[in-house]
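Hey, I'm writing a tutorial for new members on how sequence and structure tokens pair up, and I'd like a real worked example in the thread rather than a made-up one. If someone can provide the structure for the chain below, I'll link this post from the tutorial.
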Amino acid sequence: MLVSRAKLIRAVAFDVDGVMTDGGLYLGDSGEEFKRFNSLDGHGIKMLLNSGIQVAIITGRTSNCVALRAKNLGITDVYQGVEDKFAAMLDFLGKHQLPRDAAAFMGDDVMDLAVMRRVGLALSVPDAPQRVRDHAHYVSQRRGGEGAVREVCELILSAQGLLEAQFTPYL
């Protein structure tokens, strides 16, 4: 069932805090916000994009470092400061003319459930609350900010027979 769902995915959206990062918020004395991103996750996202799968960031917070990270990875669909993540997901899918069953979303908290419950593939992390994990089709082995994004990128690409082609340039 997981592989059959993953085969249909043409778009993936990720929450940031707790998924692309460890969920910690680092604040400097001047109010500047810092986040730690994982380079393995970044390469996983690039592999999705290189395979023709659309990628978005949908997050409730707003920070410059997220915009910079998205630009660095080539993610053009970035939704920050979002209260209604499902509406953002519908906008993302509408831009790319994709149905909900062709979408995956990776979240880690209850505000992500509105999206997770309405897409083809719901993904989460092991340290998410039980209620969130109960609604996930797949819970990564790795924690948020520690390779969880890369893990699900490889899962989707493998299900579609696209993963090995992404490694070819390095062999």
